[in-house]
Amino acid sequence: xxxxxxxxxxxxxxxxxxxxxxxxxxxxxxxxxxxxxxxxxxxxxxxxxxxxxxxxxxxxxxxxxxxxxxxxxxxxxxxxxxxxxxxxxxxxxxxxxxxxxxxxxxxxxxxxxxxxxxxxxxxxxxxxxxxxxxxxxxxxxxxxxx
Length: 146
Hints:
Layout: E1 12-14, H1 16-19, H2 29-37, E2 42-45, H3 46-58, H4 63-73, E3 81-82, H5 86-101, H6 108-119, E4 123-125, H7 129-132, E5 139-141
Parallel strand pairs: 1-2, 1-4, 2-3, 4-5
């Protein structure tokens, strides 16, 4: 894993659906432009790194698996990875409780991603904004629509 740059330069926390877009057969142009426009402002939660690696490890041998592996070990490995630290863990408990109280329980992975974004003051970039909406302190954007 790469060393995180100064925290003040980070702005965007990437969800799996955004970070995996470059290896799709026809990547979304708006997402690609946004990724290229903000290379030093991007971070990813450890949860997303795990999801990407798990998906890659499950792939059948072939060109696509090689392509995804090259992307993970090349490009993705250069992006700072933020852990679920003590501060984020406390926020995650609040996120899960708030979602439960609203009658919209959140998956553990999504609550962890949201908590890491909130605890680090970053905007979460996801296509699945509906899964995260309504969480106090969570800023969201969807580069697929922008």
